[in-house]
């Protein structure tokens, strides 16, 4: 009754569980490397479906207008719909599947707890303990996801020069990264950029750091800072 009363949430829960399943079979290719590539695409397509359903939930009244598009781009679900479309037809990259896997796992765990609560407060205690441990590490998981989002930017450039990526992919991914940086709901991308900058500046200011390395890092920090969008 609980599942039928929340059909859209249940559909997203099932698609997230399927995303976790396909992502796990890509990361751990138990069925062979050829099958792993197909699970990569299935995971991203399932994530695109989840993101589209979530975006519909957040913005139910679709309008073909610039204002609606601007509002949609503020939603994290729109960001990850774009993310799935960027990588679904590209060469499989293990790093790109971790954000999809972990976000799906976190959201699926939250809804699974609601399902267990609907069954009874004492149902499946072992599963409840696992969900509690996952929830306790949520902040670390979100930081890891943000780290993946950041380091996928140079990875897309490397893929381009190695012949495994398209010319447009780095530019589209840069747009995705600026959306994540400006996210209202998830500040971890901004936080990680700040933390990485502090760590790098601390290391290069040590007397043992070569001057040319210091200059190169300072120039890179200045360039990346200029590319960063303005956050309200």
From TrEMBL:
One of its GO terms (cellular component) is endoplasmic reticulum. InterPro entries: PER33/POM33_regulator, TMEM33/Pom33. The chain crosses the membrane at residues 12-33, 80-106, 150-174. It is found in: Membrane. It comes from the Eukaryota. Its main location: membrane. One of its GO terms (biological process) is endoplasmic reticulum tubular network organization. Keywords: Membrane, Transmembrane, Transmembrane helix. It is a multi-pass membrane protein. Belongs to the PER33/POM33 family. This is TMM33 protein. It comes from Caloenas nicobarica. The lineage of its organism: Eukaryota, Metazoa, Chordata, Craniata, Vertebrata.
């Amino acid at each position: 009754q609980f599942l039928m009363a929340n059909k859209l949430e249940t559909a997203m829960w099932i698609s997230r569980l399927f995303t976790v399943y396909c992502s796990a079979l890509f990361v751990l290719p138990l069925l062979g490397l050829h099958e792993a590539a197909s699970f990569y695409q299935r995971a991203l397509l399932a994530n695109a479906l989840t993101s589209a359903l979530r975006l519909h939930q957040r913005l139910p009244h679709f309008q073909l207008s610039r204002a609606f598009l601007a509002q949609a781009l503020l939603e994290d679900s729109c960001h990850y719909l774009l993310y799935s479309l960027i990588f679904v037809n590209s060469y499989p990259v293990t790093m790109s599947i971790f954000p999809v896997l972990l976000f799906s796992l976190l959201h699926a765990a939250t809804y699974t707890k609601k399902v267990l609560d609907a069954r009874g407060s004492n149902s499946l205690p072992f599963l409840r303990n696992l969900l509690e441990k996952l929830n306790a590490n949520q902040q670390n998981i979100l930081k890891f996801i943000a780290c993946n989002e950041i380091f996928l930017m140079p990875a897309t450039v490397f893929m381009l020069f190695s012949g495994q990526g398209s010319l447009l992919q780095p530019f589209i991914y840069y747009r995705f990264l600026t959306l994540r940086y400006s996210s209202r709901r998830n500040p971890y991308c901004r936080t990680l950029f700040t933390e990485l900058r502090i760590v790098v500046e601390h290391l290069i200011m040590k007397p043992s750091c070569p001057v040319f390395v210091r200059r190169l890092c300072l120039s890179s920090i200045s360039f990346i800072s200029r590319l960063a969008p303005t956050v309200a």
